Amino acid sequence: MGSSGSGKSTLLNMIGLLDRPTNGQISIDGVNTTSLNDDKISSFRNNKLGFIFQFSNLLTDLSVLENVLLPVQISGNSTNAQKDAIDLLKVVGLETQIHKRANKISGGQAQRVAIARGLINKPSIVLADEPTGNLDSVTSETIVQLMKSMAKKLDQTFIIVTHDRQHFGDVDRIITIKDGKAFEGDQSSQMEVVA
Ligand SMILES: Nc1ncnc2c1ncn2[C@@H]1O[C@H](COP(=O)(O)OP(=O)(O)OP(=O)(O)O)[C@@H](O)[C@H]1O
Ligand SMILES: [Mg+2]
Question: pTM value?
Fold first, then answer.
């Protein structure tokens, strides 16, 4: 959490290896990712990380199913991909929309497609930037519950940037970015995060 411009997206992009820090290093599961070359960065990103952006960024000419399968085409891990994609689309409640074009579904449905797409490569870490940002309250609730149950089911870590504290309920950890520093807990916390 943190106010607008505090650097939340910047931090997620660096953890997600979409951006490089000018100072310091990013370690994920003991790997210092700042020392990886471009090829290693791509394979690390494709195999370990999943992304859910604020706006679902679906390719509108493709079907729902094809959108979910995009990360598979990039990573090349295609074993069982079609079945996994359909299973995920069932979990997010879109089994009847699988062959619809992505421009024919609602914003909430598109966000659920984006979640399925973010999970298709079974990433151990899912980075979500304002995943409920443009959704109504009821849909936000559904999306949050979905992410929580996926986290449990697949033993995944979700790192979520949100202004929408009330929809998230109990979470394992809250970090607030303030004046360029990370603090443990919500806005009132004074305890700086060490690691
Ligand atoms: N630690 C930092 N070092 C250098 N630049 C930073 C740092 N943190 C943030 N910035 C810069 O500040 C700007 C805003 O950061 P960012 O987009 O990450 O904010 P945000 O917290 O995601 O805001 P919002 O809630 O509006 O999405 C960017 O231009 C980014 O480059
Ligand atoms: Mg942001």
Answer: 0.86
